[in-house]
Specification:
The structure holds two protein chains of two kinds. Chain A is built from 14 helices and two strands; from the N terminus they run αααααβααααααβααα. By secondary structure, chain A is mainly α. The chains are: A mainly alpha, B alpha/beta. Chains A and B meet through helix 2 and helix 13 of A and helix 2, strand 7, helix 7 and helix 8 of B. Chain B: This is Ribose ABC transporter substrate-binding protein.
């Protein structure tokens, strides 16, 4: 990632546990207690690792969204982008496997296709928003519709699936393997969170993103190359979606119109629960991670109990989101 | 001027219809309005509609079939208007996006003399239609329960993965439960949860079921898309006590599995997107030859097993 050349002093290395993180953490702990009381199987490592693995997809996307939202923008296309990239990857792999066989190089080329698609989309978003001077909301609302429609067209309204089971078997450990008992998606999720945390808190780029989000005009006066930074923010978001895609595809080996539906809202909810202001300016990666885990855990707790009418499941999610946001407001 | 033309058009259409209702109408224009391919099943509907269009136009020279796909209820209502005023259709085969919002727009066409066949999703006002062709949702639940009960030898514990909270889903699940209760009272439903007719939710819900219940004898996933996720979750959890997973709707990959003698997918119950083809054929026959069309046609849900699977396998279809 290139950074604008402005002299900076390194951020203070002092570790500070932000009070804002208590809200979601408290919510999560409460929820876990409720879950464990209602069903003893909740606290098994099997269940916990299921929940964390599931979270990793939306979680990684939400980490990218944290940067976008801190910078004062929004990306509504991430769910559709995940669907499109999954489709592009599966099509590429199905195409290559004929000539190259079910091998690691085939797989890598398929991943490369997704990475290239992600990079191009991120760049396109960034340029439309900065050079094109179109609201991020509008740009990504438009591309969301485009991506999903293109995927549906590619799949002819059906589902794109791996045609070669050997290749699917070769790829599936990326989602299912668990070295030392920890599934790979969880490891990737934590790694992305750590790197993103470092970028946000310890690099000039991270500070520029926060400066732009809190006051774009002032940031410009401070000779920050606002447009450039913003473009990289959207590229970073698309890169996060690409990582999520690479973890998503081996799970079911297919992509259809319902792939990634609603991921954008879940990612944004995770970011907001995590204490990042929708108005931009500042935010916490740690909070986003907790927020994402919290959202998945609600669904899990409801699934492993039959406490309420299942029609009301989404309502519980809504209530918890509001409660957590309220806790944060009080802690401020 | 435009209005005059419109009135003239409507009048002519009306005259044509009334004059030809008992005679042949070889030059009929049939409009087919269906939801766009937004998931596997509707993808299948679009495939079958286009395929049948070609078939019918070949079979009845002079007949014109116009297929329109709509992205939502509002879009479909607009298209219905266009079909009448621009395409001058005299016959309509429509699979409404949603029942409520499309009842009035369809009734408007019907009142102007268009022969209307409604497919699958019924209208709230039945006087707006001349014929109704639908899949058998309660039948699907019943056939599934019977197969499941027989395969389990009348006893065991099962889990149920439902679709999206809708009337269709309720009809299926209610019939399923009623049949089990009446015929196989020793089969216990451990729990049922919504998996929204999609693979990801099928995977998640099944993972949680597997965490919660130490022994599951069989799964009724109701839909093949959900069943894809269910099978993956079982595979991941290495749970081998589950004897089989019954999906539904007849997705080609699942019919192939049944054909090939898969261990876990031993059967499937149809709820075929090709019902649009049946509706189009029945309507075209009625319009062109002047024969009367049945007021209601229910396309039964059929059990697919290894013996008959090849009759239901269409490798070209997207579903």
């Amino acid at each position: 990632m290139s950074q604008p050349e402005v002299k900076t002093t390194p951020a203070s290395p002092r570790f500070r546990f932000d009070v804002l993180s208590y809200g979601p953490l408290l919510g999560l702990i409460l929820l876990c207690i409720v879950g464990a009381v209602l069903n003893p199987d909740f606290a098994t490592w099997g269940n916990i690792s299921n929940v964390l693995t599931r979270t990793s997809l939306v979680g990684i996307i939400a980490i990218g969204a944290t940067f976008v939202i801190i910078s004062g923008g929004i990306d509504l296309s991430v769910g559709s982008l995940l669907a499109l990239q999954s489709g592009v990857m599966i099509l590429t792999l199905n195409h290559l496997v004929g000539s190259m066989g079910a091998s690691v190089p085939t797989l890598l080329l398929g991943l490369l296709a997704a990475v290239v698609a992600g990079f191009v989309v991120g760049l396109l978003h960034g340029l439309l928003i900065t050079r094109g001077r179109i609201e991020a909301f509008i740009v990504t609302l438009g591309t969301a519709a485009i991506f999903r429609a293109v995927l549906t067209e590619l799949a002819q309204g059906g589902t794109l699936t791996f045609q070669n089971s050997k290749l699917a078997d070769l790829y599936s450990p990326v989602y299912y393997a668990a070295p030392l008992g920890i599934p790979i998606p969880i490891v990737v999720f934590l790694a992305v969170a750590l790197i993103a945390g470092l970028i946000l808190n310890r690099t000039p780029f991270g500070r520029y993103v926060q400066a732009i989000g809190s006051n774009e005009q002032v940031a410009r006066y401070a000779t920050i190359r606002v447009d450039q930074v913003k473009v990289w923010v959207y590229v970073f978001q698309a890169l996060c979606v690409t990582i999520a895609t690479i973890l998503y595809v081996p799970r079911l080996g297919s992509a259809s119109n319902s792939t990634g539906l609603g991921f954008e809202l879940e990612a944004i909810a995770a970011v907001i629960i995590g204490g990042t202001s929708l108005r931009g300016g500042n935010g916490k990666i740690f909070g986003t991670v907790i927020g994402a885990i919290l959202l998945t855990t609600i669904g899990n707790v409801l699934n492993i109990t039959s406490l309420i009418s299942e029609y009301l499941n989404p309502a519980v999610q809504g209530v918890v989101i509001i409660i957590v946001a309220f806790l944060q407001r009080n802690r401020k | 001027m435009k209005k005059a033309l419109l009135t003239a058009g409507i009048l002519t259409t009306g005259l044509l219809i009334s004059g030809l209702s008992f005679a042949q109408n070889k030059n009929a224009v049939i409009g087919v309005s269906i939801p766009a391919a937004d998931h596997g099943w509707t993808g299948g509907v679009v495939y079958w509609a286009n395929r049948t269009k070609t078939e019918l136009e070949k079979q009845y020279p002079g007949l014109k079939v116009i297929v329109k796909t709509a992205k939502d209820a509002n879009d479909q209502a607009n298209q219905l208007q266009d079909l009448l005023t621009v395409n001058k259709i005299d016959t309509l085969v429509v699979l409404p996006y949603e029942s409520g919002p499309l009842t009035r727009p369809i009734k408007q066409l019907h009142d102007k003399g268009v022969f209307v066949t409604v497919v699958d999703r019924g209208l709230t006002d039945e006087t707006a239609q001349d014929a109704y062709v639908a899949g058998d949702n309660p039948g699907m639940g019943k056939v599934s329960a019977e197969y499941l009960g027989k395969q389990l030898g009348g006893k065991g514990q099962i889990v149920v993965l439902r679709g999206i909270p809708t009337v269709i889903d309720n009809q299926r699940v209610d019939a399923f439960e009623a049949t089990l209760k009446a015929k196989y009272p020793n089969i216990k439903i451990l729990d049922k949860k919504f998996a929204n007719w999609n693979r990801d939710d099928g995977f998640k819900v099944m993972q949680d079921f597997l965490t919660r219940f130490p022994r599951i004898d069989a799964v009724w996933a109701q839909d093949d898309d959900i069943a894809v996720g269910v099978l993956k979750a079982m595979d991941q959890a290495k749970r081998t006590e589950v004897k089989f997973v019954l999906g539904g709707a007849g997705m080609k990959e699942f019919i192939k599995k049944v054909m090939d003698g898969d261990k876990l997918v031993t059967g499937d119950v149809t709820y075929a997107p090709s019902m649009i083809a049946d509706a189009m054929k029945l309507t075209a026959k009625s319009v062109v030859t002047g024969s009367k069309m049945a007021k209601t046609t229910i396309i039964p849900s059929v059990l697919i097993t290894k013996q008959n699977a090849k009759n239901y396998y269409y490798p070209d279809s997207p579903f």
